[in-house]
Amino acid sequence: MMEAVIIDLHPRPGKFSELTVLVKQMVEEVRRHAGCLQAEIRLAPERGKISVIQKWQDPEAFSEYLIWRSKQEHLDRVYALSEAEPDLSSYTLCEPG
Known about the structure:
Layout: E1 3-9, H1 16-32, E2 36-44, E3 49-56, H2 59-69, H3 74-81, E4 87-92
Antiparallel strand pairs: 1-3, 1-4, 2-3
Helix pairs in contact: 1-3
């Protein structure tokens, strides 16, 4: 079954634009990762929130991506620009019918 993932980021004051640029680069990498079906960014500057929405062919593909991502430099920079750890929610998508 497909897996949907929502990641919410809360930039430190004054770091919204810088974190947005970094997240855009990271999403481009996500889109090229095996098993990624979709990756989009939602920006809410008035609430100080950046959301990344991803869709994966299955939970295993997402798990493999997480292992790969944990070894990349960008993740340390995300933490440095954020007020807190990213909020990650994962959902199994049900097929209609």
